[in-house]
TrEMBL record:
InterPro entries noted in UniProt: ATP-dep_DNA_helicase_RecG, DEAD/DEAH_box_helicase_dom, Helicase_ATP-bd, Helicase_C-like, NA-bd_OB-fold, P-loop_NTPase, RecG/Mfd, RecG_dom3_C
Protein name: ATP-dependent DNA helicase RecG
UniProt GO BP: DNA recombination; DNA repair
Enzyme Commission number(s) of this protein: 5.6.2.4
Signal peptide bounds: none
Keywords recorded for this protein, A-Z: ATP-binding, DNA damage, DNA recombination, DNA repair, DNA-binding, Helicase, Hydrolase, Isomerase, Nucleotide-binding
GO molecular function list: 3'-5' DNA helicase activity; ATP binding; DNA binding; hydrolase activity
């Protein structure tokens, strides 16, 4: 029997892959030959430049070569260490592996090796711990360039490399060429087949870079095309539920204790236009913390209820679910029957609620991911609002079951993570985007100051002052308990402040490990003004809203990203009083302070996001969680903002071209590309079709 090779072949048929390795590979998301070829190295070891051992200084990242002169073990604090001495005739260096005794048999005297890694001064010699290494037939002029992969368990980088090499020689010829030649020429990209060779077996560092750029471009191009297709198909194929009756949301606005900002009014009218026309809504509302997204969510949920449908309000934490329910009851209590579905309900409470949802007795349900469980049967679900979308994945938020024969619910997602516009169009390419780019009137900017850890007194003096004025404050810490890194833990800070800077004040403590009751109780006490200062981990990050809180101290602020800090800071400055935020930098490093200082100047989330993009690249905005699509290897491939923008433009151009049947566009190539994208993201576009 002859079997035809296919890129979809199971990895276990590839030479060098036994059942055990196949399992590990599956654990890292590799199950076919194609997946294997798409398992990209994140850097290369360049053995093409070999340093002579006598020129190596501790701290250098170098490649050396030498003949093995000794192989033995030494005891060390880190465990038993294999120590292999090598010489190139000009110096001696030791290669060291801790707790990997089985490597012993790989070395024998006289054998030549190339080794690459960081040199250190230990045990009175130059050592290199856990180097990347390779046997070589003898002294070489120019060594190979070896790609380095993320390994897992016994599957080391070099084992992966070996497997991929054999996959490449067997399957390399099957790789489709779907990158249009126009793009290759315009951006200096390689043909795909060549790119696979150069990324896994580079002939030069320069070619490796070009291969990476090729894949970076391809990934974004594919993603963008897939998202555009999803958007188009879901628009074309699914009519939405028309919300005809807007009595309730109108009454809600009339009784609201404030006037909508222009931006809120605009976004509400965008939503109204879509839902009342019976178009299927798939919309992202982006707005800085405090811009008033909840009101927009409530308006929309009431529009569903008013028209005889149910609304689901999905939030990432129980604290937030409870808060939203309270807000709902305060502002629209008489208008809709509201249920709260969270994991910690007793089974009787839950049963009752589920019955209410199934019978349609309960109109609006606020809840955590418990809302997504299959046991929740809706009577007539018309709208799903997801708050703080960045905490969920797309797939997850869409698993709310639909009843056969009924129109699918509208989808509205809210995000307080401002994404630079250039990225939002890619990241959320399947959604329409509404932006609330204005804060309610009278909102003051939060005066922000960066302090060294020696200046904490300044911050806590302010906290006391604010409390004396009748206000409240937050203290935020990165971890719950003292971790190995020495970061301040909420519990420790609490103990310290109680008898120190904040002695005599009423302090509360919350973190994610508290029981639901304890957490609830603490939160309630703070909301009711019964505690002055709430010490917490980032559980307060999402959406907690206490107007009387005017001061925030963030310990170890340099362990957070700027965007997170900005979101945390948004918890204060919600009322009329001036507000303050102190960022305590734990490391004295000037660069980390400098990075934080940007927040002293910048007060809107979009500027903070742009800066984050500039400083740390687009990776942070592209977590898989954000879009829920098959992983895009932003970090491994070094995808830059520029590539994202360019690839998006090209994707749009290609789709336009195909749609209009423009003369002179490379029709055949573009159709092949489209086909390829459908193949790759098939489940997604199918999903778009089915909904
Ligand atoms: P976020 O966008 O961060 O979710 P919220 O919806 O929690 O913000 O709103 C923050 C605060 O601003 C809440 O106390 C809310 O009642 C208030 N608020 C919302 N819209 C307005 C408005 N138009 N005028 C005044 N206050 C508003
Ligand atoms: Mg909110």
């Amino acid at each position: 029997m002859t079997t035809r090779l296919s890129l979809e072949d199971d990895v276990r048929y590839i030479k060098g892959v036994g059942p055990k390795k196949a399992q590990i590979l599956r654990d890292v998301g590799v199950s076919t030959a194609r997946d294997l070829l798409d398992y990209f190295p994140f850097r290369i070891e360049d053995f093409s430049r070999v340093t002579s051992i006598d020129n190596v200084r501790p701290g250098d990242d170098v490649t050396v070569q030498g003949r093995v002169v000794s192989v033995g073990f030494v005891e060390s604090l880190r465990g038993k260490a294999l120590r292999v001495g090598i010489t190139d005739g000009r110096g001696i260096m030791y290669l060291v592996w801790y707790n990997m005794p089985y490597l012993y048999k790989k070395f024998s005297r006289g054998q030549w090796v190339l080794a690459s890694g960081r040199a250190e001064w230990r045990r009175n010699s130059i050592e290199m711990a856990h180097p990347i290494w390779k046997e070589s037939p003898g002294a070489v002029e120019v060594g190979p360039i070896i790609p380095v992969y993320h390994g897992k368990a016994s599957l080391t980088s070099s084992a992966i490399h070996a497997i991929i090499s054999s996959a490449l020689s067997r399957y390399g010829g099957l790789i489709e060429e779907t990158l249009p030649s126009t793009l290759r020429e315009r951006y200096g990209l390689l043909p795909e087949r060549e790119a696979y060779r150069q990324i896994h077996a580079p002939q030069s560092p320069l070619l490796w870079d070009r291969a990476r750029k090729t894949f970076a471009f391809r990934e974004v191009l594919h993603l963008q095309i897939a998202l555009s297709l999803m958007k188009k198909e879901s628009k074309a194929l699914s009519a939405g539920i028309p919300f005809h009756d807007l009595t309730l949301p109108t009454r809600f606005l009339e009784t609201l204790p404030f006037r909508l900002t222009r931006a809120q009014a605009r976004v509400i009218s965008e939503i109204r236009e879509e839902v009342s026309a019976g178009k299927a809504m798939n919309r992202l509302v982006q707005g800085d913390v405090g811009s008033g997204k909840t009101v927009v969510a409530m308006w929309s949920l009431l529009a569903a209820v008013s028209s005889g449908y149910q609304g689901a309000f999905l939030v990432p934490t129980e604290v937030l679910a409870r808060q939203h329910k309270r807000t709902f009851e305060r502002l629209a209590g008489g208008l809709t029957r509201i249920g709260l579905l969270v994991g910690s309900l007793s089974s009787r409470e839950k049963q009752k609620l589920l019955e209410g949802i199934a019978s349609g007795d309960i109109h609006t349900v606020v809840g955590t991911h418990a809302l997504l469980e299959p046991e929740v049967k809706w009577y007539r679900l018309g709208l799903v609002v997801t708050d703080e979308q960045h905490r969920f994945g797309v797939r997850q938020r869409l698993t709310i079951p639909e009843k056969a024969g009924e129109l699918r619910p509208h989808i509205l997602v809210m995000s307080a993570t401002p994404i630079p516009r250039s990225l939002a169009l890619t990241l959320y390419g399947d959604l329409d985007i509404s932006v609330i780019d204005e804060l309610p009137e009278g909102r003051k900017t939060v005066t922000t100051r960066v302090l060294g850890s020696g200046e904490r007194a300044v911050a806590y003096r302010k906290v006391r002052e604010e409390v004396q004025k009748g206000h409240q404050a937050y203290v935020v810490c990165p971890l719950i308990r003292e971790g190995k890194t020495g970061r301040k833990a909420a519990e420790m800070v609490f103990e310290e402040l109680k008898d120190g800077y904040l002695k005599g004040l009423r302090l509360g403590l919350i973190h994610g490990e508290l029981s639901k009751d304890a957490l609830d109780e603490e939160m309630k006490r703070f909301v009711e003004g019964k505690t002055d200062v709430l010490i917490s981990t980032t559980v307060i990050e999402v959406g907690v809203d206490v107007e009387n809180a005017t001061c925030m101290v963030i310990e170890d602020a340099d362990s957070f990203g700027l965007a997170t800090l900005h979101q945390l800071r948004g918890r204060v400055g919600r009322g009329d009083a001036p507000s303050y935020c102190y960022l305590i930098a734990s490391s004295a490093g000037a660069t980390s302070c400098e990075r934080l200082r940007a927040l002293e100047r910048l007060h809107d989330g979009f500027s903070v996001a742009e800066l984050d993009l500039e400083q740390r690249g687009p990776g942070q905005f592209f977590g898989t969680k954000q879009h829920g699509l098959p992983e895009i290897k932003v970090q491994e491939l070094g995808i830059t903002a520029e590539i994202i923008v360019k690839a998006r433009e090209e994707a749009e151009r290609i789709l336009r071209c195909l749609e209009n049947g423009d003369a002179g566009c490379c029709d055949a190539e573009y159709s092949a590309l489209l086909e390829k994208v459908r193949q790759r993201f098939g489940d997604l576009t199918m999903y778009a079709r089915s909904r």
